[in-house]
Amino acid sequence: MTTLRMAAVAAEFGRDLEDTFTTVERLIKEARTEGVGLLALPEACLGGYLLSLHDGVARDEGPPALALDGPEIRRLAALAGEMTVVAGYCEAGADGRRYNSAVCVSGDGVLGNHRKVHQPLSEDASYACGDGFRAFDTPVGRIGMMICYDKAFPESARALALDGAEIGVCVSAWPGARTQAARDLVNDRWKRRFDLFDRARALENQIVWLSANQAGTFGSLRFVGSAKVVDPGGDILADTGVAAGMAVAELDVAQALSTARRSMGHLRDRRPDVYAPAGAATT
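and the corresponding structure tokens:
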């Protein structure tokens, strides 16, 4: 039996990159002490998220745009060392556009990169969108990455599962509700949706699921935290709640997938020939 100790983080990050790397280094050291092999940090942890997702609310110029092959990502990889680390950042694309991206690194360098495809509210005013979902191999298994709103669409995680992803990693800057906001985030309706999506995406694809999220406040946003590790049956193995923290769980990934899919294989039993709307061409 080969087990993997994995962790998802809920933490607060701002614009200052030196402060960010101080926090990242502390979290990686904490994870290393816990024997973690796979660590998920939140969306936009390198340089912070947007101040607001709504028109008419004050904004700044946004997070610093970082090159995938630039010094900041190399610094993250050096900190990761033997660990596999996923982190969100604002990517400076070679096409001159900015992307809300997640990078997966180890001490060997970049293992994978994902550009956020689905953009909520006014996020498209700050970022260009990505064009797909692709799984990739890492020292801890085959991983598929998503960012925040991507997980609201079942097709995102399903595309990664069909591409062989054993572990889905979704990094987020998911806030609480802006209207009818709950005084206590535990009771917030957007927090409830965040948790439902995490459990459903794991269960419907029968994959392991790591969900990292921003915590605290930034600009007009109040984040719900709720970082967690979910097994292929949709059961939460570890959860930070709405506070900052690190959710840590250990699992034999191969065995967990095999057990979940032994009788009812959601990928195996698909019927794609009947899913197209009536009159539409089947692909």
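(Above: one complete record from the training split.) Helices lie at 17-33, 71-80, 154-162, 189-205, 253-261.
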